[in-house]
Amino acid sequence: MVSPTPPSAHVQGNCVAQPRLPRAVRMVSLRAGQSDSIRQRPGETIFLKGGEQVKPFPPHPDLQPLTPTCNPPCLAAAMPPGVSPGPEGPSAPAPSGRAGRRAPPPPRRSPGLPEAKRRGRARRLHQEVAELQDGLQHLDLAAEKPVPSGTGLAYDKELTSFHCLWDKSFPECPARLTSIWTKLVEDGLVERCVPVQARLATEEEILLVHSPQFLALMASTADMEEGKLRALSDTYDSVYLHPNSYHCARLAAGTVLAVVDKVLSGELRNGLALIRPPGHHAQRERMEGYCLFNHVAIAARHARERRGLQRVLIVDWDVHHGQGTQFIFEDDPRVSYNTPSVLYFSVHRYDNGAFWPHLPDSDSSAVGRGQGCGFTINLPWNQPGMTDADYISAFLQLLLPVAFEFQPQLVLVAAGFDAAIGDPKGQMLVSPACFAHLTHMLLALAGGKVVLALEGGYNLHSLTEGVSAALGSLLGDPCPPLAGPAAPCPSALQSISKALGIHAQFWPSLQHVEVSALSTEDEGVEEALGETGGVPSPVELPCPEALPSLEAPPPRRPPACTGLVYDERMTQHYNMWDSQHPERPQRVTRALSRLQELGLERRCLRLPPRLATEPELLLCHSPEYVARLRATVGLRPRELHRAGSRYNSVYMCGESFEAACLAAGCVLSAVDAVLAGQVQNAVAVVRPPGHHAEPDAACGFCLFNSVALAARYAQQVAGRPLRVLILDWDIHHGNGIQHIFEEDPRVATTWQQQQSPWPRASGHCWETPHWPHLQSWHYPCLHTPSPVLSMPSAWPALCTVPTGPAFVSMVLCSRYVAGHMVAHGDASGHPMVLSFADLSAWCYDCEAYIHHPTLLPAKILAHRLKFGNELPALL
Ligand code: Q9C
Ligand code: ZN
């Protein structure tokens, strides 16, 4: 291997240019004299060179005072103008996420500081290191908040004790609740929930949202005769009153509060309130649209004012616009809290204003007022017939980006099921399974604190199916598969694009989304959509075909457990020449003990580890390659060294083959358990890693491509067609997986592509981009002229092999990239090498690290070059 020519531009005087580090990862050298930057920043991972990785645990978000200028950094940027003036003032454009990121650490100071300052710095560094290590030892890693568990289900038969006295076929009827209950019992869901006692909301609670006059009026209806009730009802839009209506509306509101309180206290993880009458059309002084009191609005105010929450998200997927909720919060004053409080998102049928409640306020142009600007998000559909794909798109493209930015502490869902297929009012086509998916997506928010309150839903069949599916998600069941097509229809895209265009000004997370293609002003689209009538026009924009349904539907009650597979023997693969190699055995031992400390390990089902068999390895690798790796078993160090150096960034020891077979086999074992339905999902804590391994070559610490093997294996053992998605979130490109599946349509691979992906076909060391755990070791190559030191005659006594004049060559490039340092001895004839990374010295002949006082001058020189100051005494 030939060493590349040095790029002198990377050396600035004596100060070597620092590699840029990603925001949350820094390498800290304990010897580097960086006392001013060793302090851990929030959320940051620090790698202690030569030590263990320190992963800080961020403080619990609920315990964190959230000031607009700090955590999370993007929230401040998300504040609509005027809400939280950042340093740039209220009208400054919000920085995009990228621009808002922390700048890389400042370059180190150049040498020439007074000696005393240097000593002081070294002393401070010592002290900080000691403190850091001490602090780490006393970290109580196990003392973390227990994860709340249990899904609350609130229902009271009392809530069926009212109906419309003068219209027996009124859609809002007692059977809605009784049929839901029957269905949930049938599906075995009731017994899996924690019952929550329904209760009456107090007057004080009602007054959180409604006026005293309105409350008094509603209270007075309890004693009214039918005639009076009817007369009063008729003065409102779409309501009926029954002598029990007031009582039940108070019971419904209180029941939502009961569930919310148990979720906020951590007694329950999430919950569902089965209530009627519905609430989201009720306004401060008005009943409307079957609603008397606005339960969800009351619960949001309660959470904020009585339970101290700062941010509540209301998601309203009822097919009608919850104008009541919007009016209550659209100008919600939040001065005393200095943070936005309630974000209202509603997706609803609008038909360009032709659908009830016929309000321009239901359009996406209504965004809130004053300080509430940007905190009302309406997504109006202008055609009936919206499908799962349309609702999923609405969530993925609009709601979730904003919600992740908003970081709610509680999610309240105005859960109507009148968008469900078969509903006489909504005339939408949402499947029951889709409600499981919508619910599931919300569970990622607010630490899972999600409470569903029933709103509309008038087809008893689709209502009950929808509720059952949503409750399944609250209970942790996997979502049932959705039927295609998977893409939103043109009209839905138009609605979503318009809302995105409007809200991008408030929410930086929406700014990257392309909104021009289908904006309302786009005449081409109007044409493609045909005359804007009530009926969806035949598809005119390309819409992907539905994927064939491959899977049999999963069992109704799947296994609720997670598999864990691990085998200690994987630690026998190690780098015998470098115990500090980043891919070291402690990676898995530490991971496992952490799982144990957290009590996660005992919540898993341990799966049997096993070796991948020869035929299994051949699913992705060539017979020659497998044989070549097998032949490394029992080789001597020198031969192993050579075997590893055939490949890019690979080391091997006598146990490497077995460990790699074990790593792959463990992943296969996890696949077995998942496909057999023994577990719902699984984790394999394995090493060596696999995703760089090619069909016929080891690469980047990887020997066998465990994930690629698992994908092929899954397809083989499933006994039926199987689509496999591989998500590769490793910071490096999974070149091996890509090459293995590039032409296989059955496996989709996805990874985050870096700007200049590693590995490169030809590796000049300064071209290799960041590999975070190697980054501080990546310095420009200074082979010519290498500082070469003559060794005195004492030298050979230390190192058994060389006689005569010996040389120490300083290699200032990465030892792991393109095999530079490994191959340096061969290429240059130098018998030993001094690492610029950690000032260790390597002897090629005895294949060992060595130390001797005669090396000191070379080390001092290297240190001076690297850090611009003298080697601290601690060396
Ligand atoms: N011709 C809920 O779903 N429709 N409310 C009025 C007038 C009112 C629905 C039609 C529908 C209200 C909670
Ligand atoms: Zn509705």
UniProtKB/TrEMBL annotation:
Q: Read off the PROSITE patterns from this record.
A: ZF_UBP
Per UniProt, the ranges with Pro residues bias are 82-93
Q: Which InterPro entries match?
A: HDACs, His_deacetylse_dom, His_deacetylse_dom_sf, Ureohydrolase_dom_sf, Znf_RING/FYVE/PHD, Znf_UBP
Please indicate which superkingdom the organism of origin belongs to. Eukaryota
State its location(s). Answer: Nucleus
Q: Where is this region: Disordered?
A: 77-124, 518-538
Pfam families in the cross-refs: Hist_deacetyl, zf-UBP
What are the UBP-type domain coordinates in residue numbering? 760-869
The protein's UniProt keywords, in alphabetical order, are: Hydrolase, Metal-binding, Nucleus, Ubl conjugation pathway, Zinc, Zinc-finger
This protein's GO cellular component annotations are: histone deacetylase complex
Biological process terms from the Gene Ontology for this record are: epigenetic regulation of gene expression
Q: Please give the family membership noted in the entry.
A: Belongs to the histone deacetylase family. HD type 2 subfamily.
Q: What is this protein called?
A: Histone deacetylase 6 isoform X10
